[in-house]
């Protein structure tokens, strides 16, 4: 039994892009977009003076973050941050 290799591509083997793939792609993007945007934290009113509790820096920035939270002035925190990185 031999395989039939043909260089001719039949028109019946194509699936049109527009009605099938495009509509499916739009549906998936809409579904995942609604899931992503419907997180409960997105409906909390904005308070510019309080950092939300769920925002945490990466583990390698935790020491700098702790120093910046302890020092009350922004300039002092920046100076300590710069001095600690220049060592």
UniProtKB/TrEMBL annotation:
Entry GO terms, CC: mitochondrial inner membrane
Gene3D superfamilies: Cytochrome Bc1 Complex, Chain C
Protein name stated in the entry: Cytochrome b
One of the record's GO molecular function terms: electron transfer activity
Annotated membrane topology: Multi-pass membrane protein
InterPro entries assigned: Cyt_b/b6_C, Cyt_b/b6_C_sf, Cytb/b6-like_sf
Pfam families: Cytochrom_B_C
Subcellular location: Mitochondrion inner membrane
Keywords per UniProt: Electron transport, Heme, Iron, Membrane, Metal-binding, Mitochondrion, Mitochondrion inner membrane, Respiratory chain, Transmembrane, Transmembrane helix, Transport
Protein species of origin: Besnoitia besnoiti
Keyword Nucleotide-binding attached: no
């Amino acid at each position: 039994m031999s395989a039939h290799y043909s260089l001719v591509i039949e028109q019946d083997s194509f699936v049109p892009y527009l009605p099938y793939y495009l509509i499916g792609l739009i549906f998936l993007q809409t579904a995942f977009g609604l899931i992503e945007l419907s997180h409960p934290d997105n409906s909390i009113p904005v308070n510019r003076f309080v950092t939300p509790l769920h925002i945490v820096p990466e583990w390698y920035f935790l020491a700098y973050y702790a120093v910046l939270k302890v020092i009350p002035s922004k300039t002092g925190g920046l100076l300590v941050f710069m001095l600690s990185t220049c060592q």
